[in-house]
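Pasting two entries for a bug report.
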Amino acid sequence: MMTSVDTDLIRVLADPLRLRIVTLLARETLCTTHLVEETGARQTNLSNHLKVLREAGVVETEPCGRFTYYRLRPEVIEVLAGQFADLAETARATAEANVKRSCP
């Protein structure tokens, strides 16, 4: 049973705009222009957030002429989901066993 979650990835996904981008990219591969239209964010702000997502390994890019398309890497989300599932399983087992630390 694993009891830790990738805190760096959670920090990356905790930003509301980045989470919105990830949600949009789960549905389809989009270029920056599409993402600007969908989110209403400024292009420079959006590009900075996409850079963070790319460096964290959450998205990958695909050049297409003068545009860059972004695609979500579902395996990264699956790993995080698995870590949360393990954490929930640990919490359930702890509650069932009534495990608690005694006070000094």
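Entry 2 (this is the one that rendered wrong in the viewer):
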Amino acid sequence: MSQKQRIFFWSITAALGGFLFGFDTAVISGVEQSLQAIWHLNVWEHGLTVSIALIGTVIGSVTGGIPAEQLGRKKTLICIAILYLLASLGTALAPTWSIFLIFRFLGGLGVGASSVAAPMYITEISPARSRGKLVGMFQFNVVLGILVAYLSNFLLSDVGAEPWRWMLGIQALPSIIFLVTVLKIPESPRWLLLKKVQVEAARAVLDMIDPETAQETLLAIQQSSTPSSASARLFSGNYKTPVMLAVLFAVFNQVSGINAIIYYAPRIFEMTGLGKSSSLLSSAGIGLINLIFTLISMNLIDRYGRRTLMKIGSVGLIITLGLVARAFYVEDFSGMTVPFLLFGYIAFFGFSQGAVIWVFISEIFPNEVRASGQALGSFTHWIMAAIITFTFPYLSEKVGGGNTFLFFAVMMVLQLVFVLRIMPETKGTSLEKIERTVFSH
């Protein structure tokens, strides 16, 4: 196996955590009505059934940095694979609603922890020149997992007496593949040096990554981080710049309205007067466009940089959201105007925020606080996702679609200001040099 193939294998293995993240998140859409009928769930119980994984995700994201620091990136990924496997088998075989909730919650923990550990691992084993593309595979796999879940639900909808069990249980297959392959990847060299002071073990991994730069990278890691700095506190004041960048980036990701649009696309289309028959088309269309433009972004992120993609994306999001808001204000719901605008919105989002977020947040924190920094960014992302997802139906009903989409558009204007004035460029730069860039920014 060549050096390039080896790094790609390690990265795609960690990114499988993203595939399971996407699959686990979306698979509930195909089974929630069956579960409501089988267990005679009231409105509150039904809501809890759908959202329990999101609660687990928030908890998993805020605590995911702890095992990543204490056990290492590799062992954390192994634990995540086991969580996914338990969740898929447990929910598929659940005899009662309460047991279903427990295993669905475990799946949420896996999603939250994987959004911390997987991008961080890929960041720490990637050469600077291709880091954006490799970390971007995590987001690509999330989007692919969502699409595969929709397709899987469709294909398994008539299998057996209780199709919902097959829809949930099928996730065991990619979970097993993830578990087997993650056993074959090495530990992060930066964790080996920082937490274990295993210089030779770290050097061996760096030699596999790039023998020409291994010694130089080893010295750079040693100079940027000493074992005593491993107990550094994220909120000590020394790291206020990367903390501010990560929190703002994660907030902007969600106040773009992305989760509201993905989760409620059929509802939005019905608000514009389209029939229910368009809902399946909208879900599939949005998923496919998200996948295509995330893939395009992955191939451009290292060539043109994170800021360039964010500038183009922000302008596109402002225009598409502004036009959707206008359509609601003047009730211009003729033809496919709003659906096409939302497809354009998804394209700009996948091209910019969708692909850049996990890359950027995993790059900007120094080695000694990367795990807790990644956890902070991920937690901010998920808590904002929960808030936006839960409030969107209420807001759209009370203040109207026009005002809701105008709010999202104004937030994207603020994001553009953030990108132009505050966000540093991190492409093609070693993690240790990024530390100096961010701290001087």
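Dev reply: Rendering is fixed now. As a check, the viewer should reflect this: The radius of gyration is 22 Å.
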